[in-house]
Amino acid sequence: MKSKRLLAPYVAWMTVFTLIPLGVVVYYAFTDSLTGQFTLANLNNLGAYLPIFLRSIFLSLISAAICLLIGYPVAYTIANTSPKWQRMLSMLVMLPMCMSFLLRTLAWVAMLEDTGIINSLVTALGLKPLPLIRNNGSVILGMVYNYLPYMITPLYTVIMKIDPRLIEAAQDLGCNHRQVFTRVILPLSVPGIISGVTMVFVPAVSTFYISQKLGSTGTTMIGDVIESQFKTAYNPNLGAALSLVMMILIFICIGFMNRFTDNDEEGVVTP
Amino acid sequence: MAKELIRLTNLTMEFDGEKILDNINLYINDHEFLTLLGPSGCGKTTTLRIIGGFLTPTSGDVLFDGQRINAVPAYQRKINTVFQRYALFPHLDVYDNIAFGLRIAKLPELEIDQRVEDMLDIVSLRGFENRKVTQLSGGQQQRVAIARALVNRPKVLLLDEPLGALDLRLRKDMQNELKRIQQAMGITFIYVTHDQEEALSMSDTIVVMDKGQIQQIGRPEDIYNEPKNAFVADFIGESNILDGVMIEDYCVEFFGRKFQCVDKGFSPKEPVDVVIRPEDIDFVEADQGHLCGTVTSITFKGMQYDIIVDFKGFKWLIQTTDYQPVGKRVGIRLNPEDIHVMKKSAYSGLFGDYSSYSAEYDEIAEDTADEE
Amino acid sequence: MKKFSRVFTVLVFLFLYIPMIVLAVASFNTGTDMAAFKGFTLSRYAELFRDRSLLALLGNSVIISILASLIATVLGTMAAVGLHNARGRLKSAVMTLTNIPMTNPDIVTGVSLALLFAFTGSVLKIKSILGFWTLLIAHITFNLPYVILSVLPKLTQMDPDLEDAALDLGCTPSQAFFKVILHDIMPGVISGFMMAFTMSLDDFVISYFVTGSSFITLPVEIYNYTKKPIHPKIYALFTLMFLTILVLMVVMNLLQGKDAERKLRKRGVRA
């Protein structure tokens, strides 16, 4: 009774500003931009964007995988330092996320450009400048850089909570270092891996700035298309249809990943 | 003599269709030390929380001084509680914890100070006023919890397993302390515990509960000496419980032998449960005993030996200071006043056989009870 | 092995902080190209403090962030308490509602709110509905889950008897909340507020879609800047903000460290 009264304003707010907007997205996706009539045209037009969808998913999955490979050893190392260092290092992991990601991406542009910082070093050594920017690699680099903290943080949280007595027990039962890792630590960090992969994949697949700055026209991502429909092409109905499809794709991906973990309260997207 | 203060009538409590309390009827007198005793899940804490006002019964009434108080919220009842894990406010120091209730009641600071200081004396915590409660030992936290409740001068103090988290030595000291405080302040204590020793040594009245029902109400001596059924006999102290037949008044038959006893009022040939306390049994030479059996195990318990004796396949526990080697044939004699006869109940046959007796039994039982 | 993982971790931290270094260096550069250092100057900082409009934008960001995170903290804490007391279907339904904005990519949240506002605008015949209020609503909406997810664990950890004890000692339910419960969950409330504040301050994607020309925050304006050659005073601003947040976080970290040590000692006494 009391709890309902406390929940009411929140539920009302979230209904109006989360649920209904999603309904509005659906409404726009199925209506014509000029006449406002019901239409399937927006969805039918999506076929043209299939390659972009596939590329977005492909690049994001690779980014998530690289984040996992880089992030896991880092998270593991942090979790094995003293509590004082743990607090300081996990803070330092989060700190870049508080800074403007636009400017940080621009800094990467300055580094990678044909006349950028790295290439001026390379040419100073008498070598030819390297093609560092405007390709899939640079887009992946931008995403890995931007979303790596989202991978390290949940991994660190999970690894830190592993009871050291479990590791001792495993050693006691005859596991060597490698077996302790593969048979105890790794299986116990699965929730962190799932949550980290989700937290990298979701923003990566929907990003719309990184590919504009670090990529080329050949690396356009679905987020860029949605942005342009709203901000330059003025076709919100097509943008809504694209958003809807992307949202459904993401929900399917998350649902798929959650099947690996039975803990639905802690597993997903808790920062 | 004393006047009635609290009455529970036909109290029933259900959670999700499960009956936690089943038709509880109970009255509690002013100045009484009453203990609700039972294993975990028996409904004792639920009963206490209903009296405290934290739960509303599914049906039945709670009367306080003759007034129905079902709908009175906890903060308007003249009842205070000492919680199981003390529930001291971690952000306040000892003084402010004790003064909390008085400040809520908006008493003048001068009076608050006087009453808190008095309370600190009563619980022997003078000098600890400005300590953080998190820096106190378990026993000290316990005292703060008691002081915080008593300073409000409640008519009734509810105590929910208040000594459960303390070690054995401290528990004994606090038992005496609580009894002293109760007598000094002259208020009603309603005490919840699963520890039968605690209940026996502190209470004026014990209410034995199991499965949401009251099994027996009585003075500690009555509960111990004249248990009403096999559950009470087994839960309070150790008991050998045997199947018997009441031949006539003052005569009961078990193990194919008639024994003289002090019980009467059963129908002729009524099947009954017979309780014999392990400490009431005396060993004699094998050929002089009423019954004859073989010692199967002996455990040294400090004060006495716990000896398991096999009588025709039924194992008895006997507590004695005499050493008896395993395998020895022994005889026992039973005096009429050592034999307690009880009516058959739903608990008959469930307790009182020591075939699976082991020294760890007590500890296991206590561990599970603690989880409540 | 241990040495390798330490070196690796240091390298990853370097990777995370390279753009900060590039931007900080650029703020002292006499030239305007981030990639080429022409000479040292402090004039960018002087220019920054003379630029009223830029400081006004920063002011806008701070106002929106403080308002949104304050409102979200109050509403979210209420909701968390309600959620803590709720059971069964109601609880899981509200948790799902909370997870929607957490799982949805920012761009979808932004787009869906933009469409809602556009829809409302067209119904109410308001020409330019996007501005301060729509921005505030959007920020509160995406802040709410952060508050709830940081307050809820504190409530779960709290001794459930504390509330009963307060009621027992004569508190009305609301007195019990303000005098006892709130004190106990305060660390969660504060960290929820801080998280919401930083999220708000740095948010670009959602703000970009829900704000109009009448009220612009710093990240949105930076995005507009990045389309043209960017003025180095922006780098100066970035560097100052970075240092401010760094100092704030280190201070918070040290305070938390003291708190954690105290808790550790407390546990020692109790054991």
Structural overview:
The complex is a heterotrimer of chains A (271), B (372) and C (271). Chain A has 271 residues and is mainly alpha-helical. Helices cover 72% and strands 0% of the residues of chain A. In chain A, helix 1 (2-29) packs across helix 13 and helix 8 (164-172) crosses helix 9 (177-188). Chain A is globular, with a radius of gyration of 22 Å. With 372 residues, chain B is α+β, with helices and mostly antiparallel strands. Chain B folds into two domains: 4-223, 3-Layer(aba) Sandwich (Rossmann fold); 238-370, Nucleic acid-binding proteins (OB fold (Dihydrolipoamide Acetyltransferase, E2P), Beta Barrel), CATH 2.40.50. Chain B contains nine helices and 20 strands. Chain B has a six-stranded mixed sheet with strand order 6-7-8-3-9-10, with helices on both faces. The two termini of chain B are 36 Å apart. Mean pLDDT of chain B is 88; it is low at 359-372. Chain C has a domain at 60-230: MetI-like fold (Orthogonal Bundle), CATH 1.10.3720. Chain C is globular, with a radius of gyration of 23 Å. Chains in contact: A-C, B-C. At the A-C interface, helix 1, helix 3, helix 4, helix 5 and helix 7 of A face helix 1, helix 3, helix 4, helix 5 and helix 6 of C.
Describe the protein's topology.
The complex is a heterotrimer of chains A (271), B (372) and C (271).
Chain A: H1 2-29, H2 41-44, H3 50-79, H4 83-94, H5 101-112, H6 117-124, H7 136-161, H8 164-172, H9 177-188, H10 190-205, H11 210-214, H12 222-231, H13 236-258
Helix pairs in contact in A: 1-13, 3-7, 3-10, 7-10, 8-9, 12-13
Chain B: E1 4-15, E2 18-29, E3 33-37, H1 44-52, E4 59-64, E5 67-68, E6 79-82, H2 94-104, H3 109-122, H4 138-150, E7 156-160, H5 168-185, E8 188-193, H6 196-202, E9 205-210, E10 213-218, H7 220-225, H8 230-235, E11 240-248, E12 251-254, E13 257-260, E14 270-276, E15 282-284, E16 291-300, E17 305-311, E18 314-320, E19 329-333, E20 339-343, H9 361-370
Parallel strand pairs in B: 3-8, 3-9, 6-7, 7-8
Antiparallel strand pairs in B: 1-2, 1-4, 4-5, 9-10, 11-12, 11-14, 12-13, 14-20, 15-19, 16-17, 16-19, 17-18
Helix pairs in contact in B: 2-3, 2-4, 3-4
Chain C: H1 2-27, H2 43-50, H3 52-85, H4 88-103, H5 106-124, H6 132-157, H7 161-168, H8 173-202, H9 205-210, H10 218-226, H11 233-270
